[in-house]
Amino acid sequence: MEENDKLLLKLEQELKDFKEEIKALGVDYAIDKAYELTVKQEVIDCIMYDNSLSKEQRKALLSSDHLLEQFYDEWLSADGNLREHLNYSVDKTINYITDDYKKDKVKTKNDAR
What angle do CA 46, 87, 101 make, to 5 degrees? Predict the structure, then answer.
């Protein structure tokens, strides 16, 4: 089995174990952990699809325990990031919706003539 496959299996198993822990602790706990679950899934996607890891990096990750927890803890200590990107996305969507609204308003006004 290739190291990439081994790494993916390792990460997916950690995520599966985390999901099982969440399920066992009930709905309220699951709601509290939803953000963490989402970030951990994004970490897996980032590592597997957006990164070109060297052989040495893959080996280091494979030899480390609790990878997702380490990545999540680092994410929590990062400045800005998600909120910054989310604000940009929200602003962009507001602009699209507002532009469409203005176009519809002009069209309706022109159709009424």
Answer: 120
Q: Which tokens go with 19?
A: 């999901």
Q: What is the amino acid identity at position 24?
A: A
How much is the pTM? 0.69
CB 70 within 8 A of CB 30: no
Q: With 80 as the cut, is the pLDDT of residue 1 above it?
A: no
Asked whether the beta carbons of 67 and 11 are under 8 A apart, the reply is yes
- Asked whether the CA dihedral 49, 51, 52, 58 is positive or negative, the reply is negative
pLDDT digits (tens, 9 = 90+) for 68-106: 999 998 888 776 666 677 667 777 888 888 888 889 888
